[in-house]
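Let us practice reading a record.
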Amino acid sequence: MTSHDPRSGGHPPLPQQANPSWMGHVPEQHYRPAPANYAGQLRAGLPPAVPAASSSRRSTGAVGLVAGGGILGFLSLFAVLPFVLGNTGIAGFVIGFVASLLPLGAVLLAVRVIDRWEPEPKRLLLFAFVWGALVSISVTLLIEPYFSLAAGPASGLDYRTFAATVQAPVVEEFAKSLGLLLLLLFARRHFDGPVDGVVFAFTIAGGFAFTENILYFGRAIAESSDPGTDLAVVLFLRGVMSPFAHAIFTGTTGLIMGFAARRWHTGLSVAAFAVGLIPAMLLHSGWNSMGQDFLAQYILVQVPIFLLAVVVIVLLRVAERRLTRQRPKEYAAAGWFTSAEVEMLSTGAGRRAALRWATSIGRGPQMKAFLHAATHLAFTRQRILSGRDVPAHQLEEQRQLADVVALRAAVLR
């Protein structure tokens, strides 16, 4: 494979295909060719045992975030568990826990589908779930009394209406989205864009809804004279008609923060957190405001919102795939991939075929790591082309290129 010298002097012209989608827009003044592979051939620069190599460079921020999340989750148990048990009783808690697995499974399945192209680290998804299921619940329990005292009288609403349409949307969305902000600030290497924002938001919201559903389902058992019927009604409303309600609310915040993540700027991240809370709170309040005409509003308003969310997610995935096709092509032009490898990396069918082949010769884990590393490299290049923190990202790019070359060698050895 031949090497290509980078252009020198001034800004190179923007290639026609450098902007493969609206999500991967590159300002002309920030474009730069991929670094050339001066080795002239694809050979390993690291020992073949590379899957452990990338995991050994986990960012300190991400490790601290996961550790801190675990501690906060454990401490939150002492607030959340007594509260839920006090409202449901032991029998209601157990039945509510089992029933809540149904909507949780639907949300986590959606997360898996959305996240399939560039999977997020499991430790960060675990942090997101623990934050949603425990920490955000305890933050909500802590803030709600003070918020009610401060804002309740000024609202002019009766307490029940205020709690449902103002307090719950504001406090709960704030509590859930704090986890998103921490992920963006401390694990930004894994928060590449709007798809990642939606994935993390759905996971947090899924955890929050899981605990909330235990409470609602358990109450249907503990406080009803006809617990079987009441549980069936609540399960249908929350588990069948609206398993994605919280996910869509918080997903709007994750979407906006994901766009901000592409700029790699702390101030913009915090601003996106504040701005992203607005549509989440409005959607949440609108949902809680549905009353006697619930069915009509559900069909005319909530179903279209859900369908719009599906369309947005599909468009995001298409844009992400186009981006991860174009950036490896630029590395191929610089001598890091063959054109056949670019085709393999940029299509679902190509990736599946590559995994099947590698598995057949006992190198499935290496191929899986190679595919993941190449995708992560594409997003690192996108951050470089955004023009922010370029030297730091170029250093990371060199490390990732070394990983990619070594993983390729480990697959083909």
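A brief commentary: The chain has two domains: 60-289, 304-413.
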